[in-house]
């Protein structure tokens, strides 16, 4: 099996579509992630953008807010994804989720993934909210 040529016209079109989606929601954090992969795994950086955003995130069935809630729930339940969770909490705020909605999503994960995962996610959220002067979080 041969790997796809990330320089092909088709792959570059997927990548460009992914960059457009990403730039509309990210707020500037993703380029640092992609750059950190450039000297060791440029194909991984390419596929994160091309597949993750060009193919998956651009699907029209879910609105960006819904998609972000799904992503937050998955990352919280996986655990060990705190750097990615931080990026997606920021992205969630960028697409209009409120801090209260994000906190509620993490509270909900406690019932399915356990309190340690929910606490880890809340801790990451608190860091992001503090950076953006969004503390304290109030219900509603």
UniProtKB/TrEMBL annotation:
Give a single Pfam family match: CMD
| All residue ranges annotated as the Carboxymuconolactone decarboxylase-like domain in the record | 42-126
InterPro entries in alphabetical order: 4CMD/NDH-1_regulator, AhpD-like, CMD-like
Which is an annotated GO molecular function term of this record? peroxiredoxin activity
User: Which PANTHER family does its entry note?
Assistant: 4-CARBOXYMUCONOLACTONE DECARBOXYLASE FAMILY PROTEIN, GAMMA-CARBOXYMUCONOLACTONE DECARBOXYLASE
This chain belongs to the protein called: Carboxymuconolactone decarboxylase family protein
């Amino acid at each position: 099996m041969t790997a796809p040529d990330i320089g092909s016209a088709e792959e570059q079109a997927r990548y460009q579509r992914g960059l457009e989606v990403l730039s509309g929601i990210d707020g500037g954090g993703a380029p640092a992630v992609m750059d950190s992969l450039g000297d060791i795994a440029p194909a991984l950086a390419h596929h994160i953008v091309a597949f993750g955003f060009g193919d998956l995130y651009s699907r029209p069935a879910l609105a960006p807010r819904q998609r972000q809630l799904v992503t937050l729930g998955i990352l919280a339940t996986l655990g060990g994804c705190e750097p990615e969770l931080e990026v997606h909490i920021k992205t969630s705020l960028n697409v209009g989720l409120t801090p209260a909605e994000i906190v509620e999503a993490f509270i909900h994960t406690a019932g399915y993934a356990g309190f340690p995962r929910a606490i880890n996610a809340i801790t990451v959220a608190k860091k992001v909210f503090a950076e953006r002067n969004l503390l304290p979080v109030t219900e509603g």
